[in-house]
Amino acid sequence: MSCKVIKVGVVGAGTVGSGTIETLIKRADILKKRCGVRIELAAVAELDAAKAIAAGASKDIIVDDYKKVTENPEIDIVAELIGGTGLAGAIVESALSNGKAVVTANKALLSEKGRPLFALAREKKVPLAFEAAVGGGIPCMLSIREGLNCNSYQSLLGILNGTCNYILTQMTQKGVAYETCLKEAQELGFAEADPTTDVGGFDTGHKLALLSALAFDSWVDFDKMHIEGIDKVDLDDVKFAEKLGYTIKLLAVARPDGDGLFLSVHPALLPNSHTLAGIHGSLNAVSLFGDIVQESVLVGRGAGKFPTASAVIADITQVARMLAFSPEMPSWTPEPEPVYKLLPMSDYTSRYYLRFVVEDETGVLAKITGALGDNNVSIASVNQGENPIGKNAAIMVITHKAKEGDIQKALSAIGGMSFTRQAPVLLRIEE
Amino acid sequence: MSCKVIKVGVVGAGTVGSGTIETLIKRADILKKRCGVRIELAAVAELDAAKAIAAGASKDIIVDDYKKVTENPEIDIVAELIGGTGLAGAIVESALSNGKAVVTANKALLSEKGRPLFALAREKKVPLAFEAAVGGGIPCMLSIREGLNCNSYQSLLGILNGTCNYILTQMTQKGVAYETCLKEAQELGFAEADPTTDVGGFDTGHKLALLSALAFDSWVDFDKMHIEGIDKVDLDDVKFAEKLGYTIKLLAVARPDGDGLFLSVHPALLPNSHTLAGIHGSLNAVSLFGDIVQESVLVGRGAGKFPTASAVIADITQVARMLAFSPEMPSWTPEPEPVYKLLPMSDYTSRYYLRFVVEDETGVLAKITGALGDNNVSIASVNQGENPIGKNAAIMVITHKAKEGDIQKALSAIGGMSFTRQAPVLLRIEE
Predict the structure, then answer these.
(1) If you average pLDDT over every residue of chain B, what do you get?
(2) Is-contact B283 B137, C-beta < 8 A?
(3) CATH code for the domain in which residue B290 is found
(4) What rounded mean pLDDT belongs to chain A?
(5) Do A137 and B296 count as a contact with CB atoms less than 8 A apart?
């Protein structure tokens, strides 16, 4: 039986690239059977040829210049797997310009410099697919694009960075401080020597930008999003949250409100009954609440050689089927005009966890609760910490639903009071 | 801008049918934008026209005979949403015979009588899609077919029946016996007056047959599968499992072993750290362990008007895109020759939980442990129940990994001993 052939060029044989090469070769027959197209690994661009050979690529398809892939008239799909936002951008642009479909795992590139690349893909009428850029092996892009496509989302919550989730899980389960957990994660290879991109929340932000572009038909520039990392999460807060029945997770949050949309990355308290509260270690998860489907949660490995390769190959096969059978079929690019406008976090509404470190003197509690009340913040519970810090006392407050602008005003007032010994801590409670 | 139009005929305006009709109308513009095709609700076959009208169908498209949909040359896609295995089979057959694509939520029909229907779809080269038949709104079929398509699965575990999961959750969280929980579920509308299909495990079996056909490229006739329900689950076992750190769930299990495949529906003990142990109430979940992607878990509503409609519409839009842009693209039908052969449960290997109700006399424990040892079953822990049943004692045993045939031989021997007062209980432990 004759079978259409689609030729793939892989650029980069690093971790994800070599996982992709190895799996494409190993699963060629099964993929052909399952998708009705023969997917041929026709070129690998990699300066260190030994890496590509170790992954199983035959010598004669290895080239040392990406242009020999992106400008090669034989190649149908280019998989950009080198990462970063410099050369990778040139590779994707060159491939699209030459009318090739592109598959990439590069969240930084797409979220920071995606607009012109998607515009080019739209102009050239070729797919630019990026399942592997968010949630590693989790088929979240496919689910939003196709599986749940009749839904409007009431919320999207994601645990999207395995390093942060690993560190927070260690802090929670072992009761060890952030710095120690980070160091251990670095020694185990779960965190980079410079961990800023992960622990600062930026990687999560890159992924949130892409997820929300799909789920809310609204492209938001990455640099306009609210981003907090886990580097300020104190072990005291983890322990106190635990006592109250909450788990602290670094969340990507997208929440529409009227014609506006909140997009934020922040550490938050989740009730232990929440599905995401049970996602431990380096696992990732995406929780979507659609108005038709209700709750939908997808869980899996967020990174790693093969889990990411699994998603790259899912994109390659879907694009290959399109190229082979329906080159006319439109593929996703962001709406030129966003459906929702980005809302400032001062308008955000949730319950809040607040912690104040204060001098242990009479009347402090009255002043704190007074300042909260003056700013329309209603208190659900107050707890004076069992572990005073030095001569100081810690006061933990859980509020009822409040507007973040009001919370900020109250914190500013309390922060300026003479008994305050540390900047007040604010963590949102997501339900 | 001109846009291709695909015409859909819905057969049945019951719960899922009316949810589908309502959502297709409400989301027509968004679906057009997202999938590039205008999906037109062109006919509804329903004897009780008032139901279709209540869902928003205009009077002039309502017909009283399914053939006016399945034989209508204007209709491209037929959505069979009446359920059952009788008339529904004739509807699907008529639609396929007339060259129409079919979308259905009917797990009983496909798992019990699917072979000739899929053969007909293959012959007529039209899609027969069934995302809504398994896991309600959870995009599990799409994930297996496309998102994870380079994987070979090392296991598939599913919580696929909301009624059973609701009852087991109530038993666990409230400590109430099965019969009471079932009655309450019936009063709340979570269980049918005749609950056999659900609590007997048959509905879960229907879904397992379809899931495994996709995941393992192996169609197994439903009536050959091992099926146990929750009707024999004793509150004592739920409580004892809890003490040991396990939760009892009704699981669909598919586990390959060499060129064979175990397919079974049974209540099992899951360690509380297992993602599926935290899936409570009427939620459903599918856990796939792929050799490339590793763990992948999908969680959501397994039934209900709108969650199921969400999946029906995902299928309709995917099929509509195929019909509009790529009628040549092959769609999934089961392999004529299964890749795996079905294995007997006597070859199944796992750890086991066993409970013996015995006369409280000396030497009993030695005889029980002796019989297990004689049959190559190694014991991990033994516990004499704190709550003796009448004058009798309960002995709970957790085994190391053992072969089920050996366990059965030991239970048969122990069951025949003079001190045994009830048939021994066997529950598998899934990790």
Answers:
(1) 95
(2) no
(3) 3.30.360.10
(4) 95
(5) yes
C-beta atoms surrounding A385 within 10 Å = 17
Residue A366: count other Cβ atoms within 10 Å of its Cβ.
9
Domain that holds residue A204: 140-301
Q: What is the pLDDT of residue B396?
A: 95
Q: Which of B137, B149, B296 sits opposite A300 (nearest CB)?
A: B296
Confidence check: pLDDT of A389 > 70: no
Sign of the dihedral defined by the CA atoms of residues B415, B421, B422, B428, in that order: negative
Catalytic-labelled residue, pool A32, A100, A107, A207: A207
**Contact between B306 and A314 using a beta-carbon 8 Å cutoff:** no
Contacts with A165 (C-beta within 8 Å, 6 or more apart), sequence order: A159, A249, A250, A279, A280, A281, A282, A283, A284, A302
| pLDDT tens readout for residues A78-93 | 999 999 999 999 999 9
Question: In this structure, are residues B215 and B183 in contact, taking their beta carbons and an 8 Å threshold?
Answer: no
Domain identity same for B309 and B354? no
The CA-based angle A21-B144-A155, given to 5 degrees, is 105
Say which residue the tokens 């592109």 belong to: A102
DSSP string over A206-243:
HHHHHHHHHHTS----GGGSEE--STT--HHHHHHHHH
Burial of B239 (0-12, 13-18, 19+ CB in 10 A): middle
Residue A265 and residue A191 in one domain? yes
What digits encode the pLDDT tens for the residues A342-353? 999 999 999 999
Q: B376 — phi, psi (to 5°)?
A: 65, 20
Query: Within 13 A of B235's CA, how many CA atoms are on the CB side?
Result: 15
Helix and strand numbers (H, E) in chain B are 15, 18
Find, in chain A, the residue whose alpha carbon is nearest to that of B141.
Answer: A147
Closest by CA position to A279, among listed A126, A415, A159:
A159
pLDDT > 70 in chain A, percent: 98
Question: How far apart are the C-alpha atoms of A43 and A292, rounded to whole Å?
Answer: 44
pLDDT > 80? residue A385: no
d(CA A431, CA A350): 9
Two structure tokens written together for B200: 């007997």
Say if residue A290 is in the same domain as residue A315: no
Q: Inter-chain contact B150–A27, Cβ cutoff 8 Å?
A: yes
- Please say if the pLDDT value at position A387 is more than 60: no
Amino acid B276 reads L
Q: Which residue, among A329, A315, A80, has the nearest Cα to B146 in the 3D structure?
A: A315
If you ran DSSP here, which 8-state letter would residue B151 be given? P
Specify the long-range contacts of residues B413-417, CB closer than 8 Å, at least 24 apart: B413/B371, B413/B374, B413/B375, B414/B356, B414/B367, B414/B368, B414/B371, B414/B372, B417/B367, B417/B371
In a domain? residue B335 = no
Catalytic residue list contains A403: no
How many separate domains does chain A show?
Answer: 3
pLDDT at A329: 86
Q: What is the pTM of this model?
A: 0.95
Please check whether residue A35 is in contact with residue A322, taking contact to mean a CB–CB distance below 8 angstroms: no
Nearest CA in chain B to A145: B34
Q: Are residues B82 and B173 in the same domain?
A: no
Give the pLDDT mean for B310-326.
Answer: 96
- pLDDT above 60 for A388: no
Q: What is the ipTM of this complex?
A: 0.94
Residue B338 covered by a domain: no
Query: What one-character-per-residue DSSP string does A330-399 give?
Result: ------SS-SSEEPPGGG-EEEEEEEEEEE--TTHHHHHHHHHHHTTPPEEEEEE-SS--TTEEEEEEEE
Helix (H), strand (E) at residue B255: strand B246-257
Closest Cβ opposite residue A296 in set B27, B138, B146? B138
Residue B365, min C-alpha distance to chain A (Å): 38
